[in-house]
């Protein structure tokens, strides 16, 4: 079964492809099929993921999966949330994972409450007008470190410390990270939903 991934993020593609492989799903990044990206005007992960999935399905005629994920920092009232990818730009930095980490550490300086939650919302639609999208949400609670640790992963992985594992996501082997991550948890839910409802 071919499904378009409503993203061109190589990290997301690799993680999701490995998790969906057991179902025999071929995940194709939307950039291989068309140019352009959906607008994401909403303030919640689920609304933005649904908009992206419908957009990708409309432009390809294929079922689509979209992921909207981010980090919600307790000391910032849950922000940056859906603006996670662009976090650094509000502080004058160019958009990049490294700048996001840098900006986060600068903004967290002097803060004792370092609790944060990484959230991944995966939405799958069979068609652009699918009235019954499959929606899976994965969450992982942790703490923002005071300096980057580890070289694996992407995004905020080097500063997201998971107390139960004793490491940041970037310090973990890929298989371990995928098993515990917000995207891993959402993917497992979605895997079950796809199996039960689509296949």
TrEMBL record:
Cofactor: Mg(2+)
UniProt catalytic activity: ITP + H2O = IMP + diphosphate + H(+); dITP + H2O = dIMP + diphosphate + H(+); XTP + H2O = XMP + diphosphate + H(+)
UniProt KW keywords: Hydrolase, Magnesium, Metal-binding, Nucleotide metabolism, Nucleotide-binding
Catalytic residues in the record: 68 (proton acceptor)
Cofactor annotation remark: Binds 1 Mg(2+) ion per subunit.
SUPFAM superfamilies according to UniProt: ITPase-like (SSF52972)
GO biological process terms on file: nucleotide metabolic process; purine nucleoside triphosphate catabolic process
Domain of life of the source: Bacteria
EC number: 3.6.1.66
Gene3D superfamilies documented for this protein: 3.90.950.10
Subunit relationships: Homodimer.
NCBIfam families: RdgB/HAM1 family non-canonical purine NTP pyrophosphatase
Protein name as it appears in the record: dITP/XTP pyrophosphatase
Lineage: Bacteria, Pseudomonadati, Pseudomonadota, Betaproteobacteria, Burkholderiales
């Amino acid at each position: 079964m071919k499904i378009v991934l409503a993203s061109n993020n190589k990290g997301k593609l690799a993680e999701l492809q490995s998790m969906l492989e057991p179902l025999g799903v071929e995940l194709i990044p939307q950039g291989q099929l068309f140019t352009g990206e959906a607008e994401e005007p909403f303030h919640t992960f689920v609304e933005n993921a649904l908009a992206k999935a419908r957009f990708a399905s409309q432009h390809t005629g294929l079922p689509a999966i979209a992921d909207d994920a981010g980090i919600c920092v307790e000391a910032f009232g849950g922000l940056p949330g859906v603006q996670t990818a662009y976090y650094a730009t509000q502080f004058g930095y160019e958009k990049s994972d490294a700048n996001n980490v840098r900006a986060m550490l600068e903004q967290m300086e002097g803060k004792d409450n370092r609790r944060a939650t990484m959230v991944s919302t995966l939405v799958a639609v069979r068609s652009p007008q699918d009235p019954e999208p499959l929606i899976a949400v994965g969450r992982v609670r942790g703490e923002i470190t005071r300096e980057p640790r580890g070289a694996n992963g992407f995004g905020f992985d080097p500063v997201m410390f998971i107390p139960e594992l004793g490491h940041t996501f970037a310090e973990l082997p890929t298989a371990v990270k995928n098993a515990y991550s917000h995207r891993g948890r959402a993917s497992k839910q979605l895997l079950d939903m796809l199996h039960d409802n689509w296949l």
